[in-house]
Amino acid sequence: MNALQSLVPPRFRPAAKRAFFAGQRIVNLPLTALHKLVLTPAHLLVRRSRTHRKLEIGPGEERIAGFETLNVIPASNVDFLWDAAKRLPFRDGTFDVVYASHILEHIPWYRTEEVLAEWVRIVAPEGRLEIWVPDGLKICKAFVDAEERHSPDYEQDGWYRFNDEKDPCRWASGRIFSYGDGVGTLGHPNWHLAVFSYRYLEQALKRAGCRNVERLQRSQVRGHDHGWINLGIAGIK
Fold first, then answer.
1. Which pTM value belongs to this model?
2. Do residues 195 and 72 touch, judged by C-beta distance below 8 A?
3. Which end of the chain is more exposed for a tag (fewer CB within 10 A), N or C?
4. pLDDT tens by residue, the chain, 237 residues
5. b or e along 135-162 (b: 16 or more beta carbons within 10 Å of the residue's beta carbon)?
6. How far is CA 77 from the centre of its chain?
7. Which string of DSSP letters, residue by residue, matches 8-43?
8. Gap between the Cα atoms of 192 and 28, Å rounded
9. Are 36 and 73 in contact (CB under 8 A)?
10. Separation CA 81–CA 75 (nearest Å)
């Protein structure tokens, strides 16, 4: 995408981006239909009787070994095309591990506890729910310190999308709200809709039915490590 963008004159780039993403959506229509009508139902049926299953909600580009995958966007490494904010198509206690990295923040903040309860529902007794999200408290602290004390702490993150000047306010906006598809399409699944602290997530997981809730270390990331902003938490059902 970046290589193609460099070939387009700057004044035409916004329109070119919109055209690119519109074309991408059209290309994905047949794959979406195939997933919804054939692949997802087939995977649900074939795997229904399996035991010792693990599920990743919102997989990255690389599949985690031993995990089935669920995502709202179709891809070759997605087993179940489904919205993780809705009731999931699995029986109670299906999975020994449910893993969701940087997914919960894409669900409206006022639905966090409702959605966590649904994720806990499909965890097996004594099974484990593992969640990673952006650390909202760390981001907000770094933003305030940068503005009020000119602290460079936020620079430890090293993420400056749409922010060549590395302005701390633009950095905080990107980390808190994300950037959608990059051309301003409202409703795109890449926007962030919630902010988290460890205290709140610990409380929410306990209310959802988890016990032995603990903070995860970065060494416990199973897939892509989002780095400095990562906040991990896990609980046992």
1. 0.89
2. no
3. N
4. 455 555 667 666 666 666 656 666 666 777 788 889 999 999 999 999 999 999 999 998 889 999 999 999 998 899 999 999 999 999 999 999 999 999 999 999 999 999 999 999 999 999 999 999 999 999 999 999 999 999 999 999 999 999 999 999 999 999 999 999 888 888 899 999 999 999 999 999 999 999 999 999 999 999 999 999 999 999 999
5. bbebbeebbeebeeeeeeebeebeeeee
6. 16
7. S-GGGHHHHHHHHHHHHHHHHHHHHHHIIIIIHHHH
8. 23
9. no
10. 9
Whole-angstrom Cα distance, residue 192 to residue 68?
24
What's the CA gap between 78 and 52, in Å, rounded? 19
Name the nearest CA neighbour of 102 among 213, 206, 224.
224
Q: Report the amino acid identity of residue 158.
A: G
